[in-house]
Design brief:
By secondary structure, the chain is α+β, with helices and mostly antiparallel strands. Helices cover 59% and strands 11% of the residues. It folds into 3 domains: 95 residues, no CATH class; 94 residues; 159 residues, Alpha-Beta Plaits (2-Layer Sandwich), CATH 3.30.70.270. It has 13 helices and 8 strands. A 6-stranded mixed β-sheet has the order 2-3-1-6-7-8, sandwiched between helices. Strand 4 and strand 5 form a beta hairpin. Helix 1 crosses helix 3. The chain is elongated. It starts with 12 loop residues before the first helix and ends with a strand.
């Protein structure tokens, strides 16, 4: 009887999948359109097999390990659930760069639900604290009720013949026990209230932290998507224009490779400040992840948003920054951008995809330019 070969954890997928019988497939172009697999395709065994083949081939060609995170990233890119990830993989392939484990972890590091688990854990702790407070309150009410019932019985005893001294002694002992129990319950209530207040404070802080980018201090992707959804509904009601822009630092990998990640972080902060200078009460900016930023222009037509963003692009391109640690110049640091009219799209997600596609056009056209979905462009 044949036995299956031993499979070691985290061995390269090219070896692992071949050992379990999956062939080495030719890697087709990843799905980059803004569409998830339709329900009919999900129910089609052939479509599911094609998706599985593409996922397997992606992992094999990239020589990535079989891990839950890699499988998730491969599924998002190949199925079209995450067109931005698929497009970034395509860009990297076009540049002849390998899809390495380190690179994949970097581009998938920012999760729209980052911090969600810690918030949920805090919420559960808070629920437990509230439950304990409720149990303590219930216990105190029960004790008070028992005391009232017992006192009522003793008062009834006074109506008939009884040993007054014995009754008074019994009532005194019961009152002392009730006072001690009340004090204990009071301390338990105070402790529960303090713990609940502490948990509530931690929960509020965690919620705030989960919506802030640690490097730039800007709102993160999760916070932006909430604001985008709310602004989209408001704009639909009022009819006021709403524009969204995606921005991406040009040649950021070269900056990191030449000057190091610490210097790359400084560039990210500098561009965050440059883009933040555009923001008034009608503009909202967030770091979308990595070297990407996203802006929401409320009450601003796409053409006007294009002019404002291009002004920031020119201001940044005219600067000459120097690496303070090495005194070496960074050279010209630029970014590209794409803008879309949110109300011309079916929903906010489609608007983000349109802005992302416009950014892709700007990159393909030479970088250091802003492209408007539909064709208009501003360049150096």
């Amino acid at each position: 009887m044949a036995t299956n070969p031993t499979i070691e954890a985290n061995q390269p997928v090219a070896t692992l999948l071949q050992r379990i019988g999956l062939p080495r497939l030719r890697w087709p172009r990843l799905v980059a359109e803004n569409s998830e697999m339709p329900a009919s395709a999900q129910n089609d065994p052939r479509a599911r097999r094609r998706l599985l083949d593409e996922i397997s081939n992606f992992l094999i060609e990239s020589d990535l390990e079989v891990t839950p995170s890699n499988l998730l990233a491969a599924h998002e890119a190949c199925s079209g659930i995450n067109p931005r990830l698929a497009r970034r993989i395509e860009w990297r392939r076009e540049q002849g760069e390998p899809i390495t484990q380190t690179w994949l972890e970097e581009v998938t590091a920012v999760d729209p639900f980052a911090g969600k688990k810690s918030i949920e854990d805090l919420a559960k702790d808070m629920e437990r604290g509230i439950d304990e407070l409720s149990r303590t309150s219930t216990s105190m009410r029960r004790a008070t009720s028992d005391y009232g019932d017992e006192l009522e019985r003793r008062v009834d005893d006074l109506q008939g013949p009884c040993d007054t001294a014995e009754l008074i002694s019994t009532l005194s002992n019961f009152a002392e026990a009730m006072i001690a129990r009340s004090r204990q319950t009071e301390e338990e209530l105070k402790a529960s209230e303090r713990e609940t207040a502490k948990l509530r404070k931690n929960l509020d802080r965690a919620r705030q932290d989960a919506q802030v980018d640690y490097l730039t201090g800007l709102p993160n992707r999760r916070a932006f998507e909430e604001v985008l959804e709310t602004s989209y509904l408001e704009a639909q009601d009022t009819g006021e224009p709403l524009s969204v822009a995606f921005c991406d630092i040009d040649q950021f990998k070269a900056i990191n490779d030449t000057h190091g990640h610490e210097a790359g972080d400084r560039i990210i902060r500098e561009i965050a400040e440059t883009l933040s200078s555009l923001c008034t009460k009608d503009c909202y900016i967030a770091r979308h992840g990595g070297e990407e930023f996203v802006l929401l222009f409320r009450g601003v037509e796409p053409q006007e948003a294009l002019a404002q963003l291009d002004e920031a692009r020119e201001a940044l391109a005219s600067r000459r920054m120097v690496n303070r640690r090495t005194e070496k110049p960074f050279g010209m640091v630029t970014f590209s951008g794409g803008i879309a009219d949110v109300l011309q799209c079916a929903d906010p997600r489609e608007a983000l995809a349109a802005a992302d596609q416009a950014l892709y056009c700007a990159k393909r056209s030479g970088r250091n330019r802003i492209h408007l979905a539909g064709g208009q462009s501003r360049a150096a």
